[in-house]
Write a structure and sequence with these properties.
Length: 750
């Protein structure tokens, strides 16, 4: 069976800039790569056929296949030091909050090597009890376990002391105080060994053990799931009182001579840095993005913002399924030609033959040269949303998927990749194996669901907009969310019109500020989707390609953040919905999220406001009252996720609702944020609020906004060869928005 996949290090590349492409191919001895410009997605029988254009480049050709490994699982790493090698006696200790005890052996901290059976370390044994491991080489291992499993999601103080002179090993496992009732008791156990541990050959690790070499990269194993707080290392066997002194936020002066390292995870929370407060400065870094800005063992519940009380956020939450960068070597590198047209592109990979043939697309976007625009229209690719959904395994594994979709889940071979290869990592719609929500997502890994063929969701249907722009024959540039985040208003300033894709759901403050400033200065926004401008995100301050979302105490969520963990680690910003932060989507788009349903889409019906002279240009040549009773996305233009006008949430009072959808099924339910008290009138058959509103309004500076309020809308553009009322009215809007004649704000009604 051919397994073919890859990724690029860049998502947005300007002419003259370079992208590296990483590929893994298992099965055939060779694969082929071609650079293609994507013109129209594979939208099924109710859309134009799939269309791509092969671009002649130096990298097109056949390549020798190889399998590249992904080393998944987060951990902390302190570089090797003579101070570790010189230890004979020692004490290891930390506060821990395990989330999967009893699910196999799991590391906590130390230099233990699974591959060499050297070093020392404490962890959890197969049953979830605290254990100490000492290694003197292959076949020469000493262990000691408390024999009492730790409770799930309960804070403990754990420690191991080893006295080399006497060979005494001692373990301390104590549940910490808290408001919950439990029957856990302190455990202290001693043992004896004649073994003198041999210094390990690798670094000191948190939450993982050395697993050997992986082509120059550190292979790790026995990954821990849970939090670690205040890890410490001393150069002798401490008694319990001395352990308590070492565990202080600032170890007492009497412990100075014995302290090898006193790591403080509450420092540098926004970075990957691990800080040692001891004079030895045994600093390090985290690997594969374990979660930071999480509550520690001493969190009181009185402070919710980690910046206000960082000492209460001195924990890091590690997971066996965390991933940042797949770390593959590039197979080929493309420098974009100076004359390369801005657009949606991909490296198309093919391998194998017959029933063993495989195809894989590595998408990227070519933006215009930096600092200039080549057109008056920009298509804004929703790369933040694409990133949030990378490898959405929950779509296939969540127990309620088919209930809220109202239909059977359909899969293909590429959909199976993250199920067959869990090392590809998860999306922010998934939960880690320990049940905690995935709040970080990186694009530096293969993604099964970012492709121009397959399920019509996000990236694939967004290409309907590209296909429509191509059909219109207008010049357009492609820019991305990451570009907007970095450049803000300056990126948008040259454009008269910006068109979104089907689902621009995730926005950073920089993105939202840039879009808001542009529309207030006369920009014309075509919001061609639904559930847009919804979640607040943050991009990592130094690591490329990774974003963060905290799903806080409101919103339609795949998971809910732990109490006290609502502020993002990357920036310190409060997470959750923009609606909860005085910037609902209605302010910028005139509409906001109201419902979702995945069984069928419906049409719009023109309203009385459609006869207003202010919007006569929209309906030029459109005589139908019913709009979009067709389309590639479940048969209609209004579906999947819907936005409606709501003056209470800040939809402009002068906005015109020119069409509204109707006849949605009972699968369409009110979003969670609209239901303060549970009741039985939350579905579309009973609640008139559930609808998609097509809205137009003017903005200061001669600009305007046109919003469709539906993810399915773009799937109707190409129906019948673009000869339909949705394509006609959307093109009317584009043509008027390109007309430099200013729009005028209507006078305030008396």
């Amino acid at each position: 069976m051919t397994v073919l996949m890859g990724y690029a290090d860049q998502v947005s590349v300007a002419p003259g800039e370079t992208a590296h492409f990483m590929v893994s191919c298992d099965g055939p001895s060779r694969y082929r790569a071609d650079i293609v410009r994507l013109i129209h997605p594979d939208g099924g029988p109710d859309a134009p056929p799939f269309q791509e254009e092969v671009i002649a480049t130096a990298v097109n050709g056949d390549y020798e296949a190889r399998v590249q490994e992904i080393l998944i699982g987060s951990y902390g790493e302190i570089p090797t030091s003579p101070l570790f090698d010189a230890l004979e006696s020692f004490t290891l200790q930390a506060m821990v909050w395990p989330t999967r005890p009893g699910r196999g052996r799991q590391a906590l901290l130390g230099t233990w090597s699974e591959a060499e059976h050297t070093g020392f370390g404490i962890g959890l044994d197969e049953a979830g009890a605290l254990e100490l491991r000492l290694g003197g080489g292959a076949g020469n291992v000493a262990t000691l376990s408390t024999g009492v499993p730790l409770m799930v999601r309960k804070w403990y103080f754990v420690a191991a002391a080893f006295d080399a002179a006497s060979g005494t090993m001692r373990l301390v496992q104590e549940p910490l105080g808290g408001s919950m009732f439990h029957n856990a008791s302190p455990v202290v156990i001693e043992g004896h060994t004649d073994l003198q541990p041999t210094a390990g050959s690798g670094p000191f690790l948190f939450a993982a053990w050395h697993g050997g070499d992986a082509d120059g990269r550190l292979r790790t194993s026995a990954h821990y799931n849970g939090k670690i707080d205040r890890p410490r290392l001393a150069s002798r066997a401490l008694d319990r009182a001395e352990m308590a002194a070492l565990a202080q936020a600032a170890p007492t002066a009497g412990m100075a001579s014995s302290t090898v390292a006193a790591w403080d995870f509450s420092r540098d929370i926004s970075s990957e840095h691990i800080h040692d407060t001891s004079p030895n400065c045994l600093h390090g870094q985290t690997v594969n993005l374990p979660t930071r800005a999480v509550t520690g063992h001493n969190w009181t519940g009185e402070v919710m913002n980690w910046q206000a009380a960082p000492a209460q956020y001195g924990a890091i939450h590690f997971h066996e399924d965390d991933i940042y960068d797949a770390g593959w070597q590039p197979d080929f590198t493309l420098t974009m030609p100076d004359d390369m047209k801005s657009g949606a592109y991909a490296a198309r990979l093919t391998a194998g033959e017959g029933t063993d043939a495989a195809e894989y697309y590595i998408p990227f976007f070519v933006r215009p040269p930096r600092g200039k625009a080549t057109a008056k229209v920009a298509y804004l690719a929703a790369t933040a949303t694409h990133n949030a959904y990378y490898n959405n395994v929950g779509r296939f594994t969540a127990p309620l998927t088919e209930l809220y979709q109202g239909r059977i889940t359909v899969m293909d071979g590429t959909d199976m990749l993250p199920l067959d290869h869990p090392e590809l990592g998860l999306s922010t719609y998934d939960r880690h194996r320990d049940g905690s929500g995935v709040c970080y997502s990186s694009r530096l890994r293969p993604a099964s669901n970012i492709r121009p063929k397959g399920r019509l969701w996000n990236y694939c249907p967004d290409l309907f907009v590209v296909g429509w722009l191509e059909h219109c024959g207008v010049d357009y540039d492609v820019i991305t969310d990451e570009d907007l985040h970095r450049e803000g208003l300056d990126l948008l300033r040259p454009y008269s019109v910006v068109a979104t894709g089907s689902h621009p759901e995730y926005y950073s403050k920089e993105m939202l500020d840039g879009m808001d400033a542009w529309t207030r200065r006369g920009g014309r926004l075509m919001y061609l989707g639904g559930n847009g401008f919804y979640w607040r995100i943050a991009y990592h301050p130094t690591l490329p390609g990774v974003m963060e979302v905290r799903r806080t105490e409101d919103g339609t969520r795949a998971w809910i953040a732990e109490v006290g963990e609502y502020y993002m680690s990357f920036t310190g910003e409060y997470g959750g919905m923009w609606r909860r932060q005085k910037r609902p989507p209605n302010h910028i788009a005139g509409v906001g999220f109201i419902s979702q349903g995945f069984d069928a889409s419906a049409p719009y019906r023109r309203t009385a406001a459609a006869a207003d002279s202010r919007v006569s240009f929209i309906f030029d040549g459109v005589e139908d009252d019913v709009l979009g009773d067709f389309g590639a996305m479940l048969g209609g233009a209004a579906g999947l996720e819907l936005d409606c006008y709501d003056a209470k949430l800040g939809s402009p009072p002068h906005a015109l609702v020119v069409a509204s959808s109707e006849n949605h099924s009972n699968v369409y339910e009110l979003v969670a944020e609209e239901v303060a008290v549970s009741h039985n009138a939350t579905d579309a058959t009973q609640n008139p609020d559930i609808r998609a509103d097509m809205v137009f309004f003017e903005t200061p500076g001669g600009g305007a906004v046109f919003s469709t309020g539906s993810i399915a809308y773009v799937g109707s553009l190409g129906y019948n060869g673009f000869d339909n009322n949705i394509a006609r009215l959307t093109t009317n809007v584009l043509n008027r928005f390109l007309d430099p004649e200013p729009f005028e704000m209507p006078p305030q009604a008396v």
